[in-house]
Amino acid sequence: MLDGASDDASDVTSSSAADGTPGVPFRIRGTRDPETADASSPTWRQEARIAIDHTDDGDEREWLVIESLASEAAKSEDARSE
């Protein structure tokens, strides 16, 4: 994962300890699709969504979505209220 000569990145969200506990209880993903920016899954809970690109008119068109494992306690006020 930290090898600068590597051409590919490991998906650390799928790594886990011997007891099955996730190695990383959150993920950050980028999307240009407004549907997936708001999408929830049974495994992941959205903690925050940050617009990182806008159209010339100021409309959001690309986001970073921060999600935590749904099985863990919510980390943000927005996620706690859902």
**Helical coverage, percent range:** 10-25%
Provide a count of the helices: 2
Give the strand line-up of the largest sheet: 1-3-2
Beta percentage is 25-35%
Q: What would you report as the Rg, rounded to the nearest angstrom?
A: 15 Å
User: What class, by secondary structure content?
Assistant: mainly beta
Poorly predicted runs of 5 or more residues: none
Order of helices and strands: EHEEH
Quick structural summary:
The protein has 82 residues and is mainly β.
Explain how this protein is built.
- The chain has 82 residues and is mainly beta.
- The chain has a domain of 56 residues.
- It has 2 helices and 3 strands.
- A 3-stranded antiparallel sheet has the order 1-3-2.
- Strand 2 and strand 3 form a beta hairpin.
- The longest helix has 5 residues.
- It is flat and about 50 Å long.
What characteristics describe this protein?
82 residues; mainly beta; three-stranded antiparallel sheet; 2 helices; 33% strand; flat
Task: Detail the topology: elements first, then pairings.
Blueprint: E1 26-31, H1 34-38, E2 44-54, E3 60-69, H2 77-80
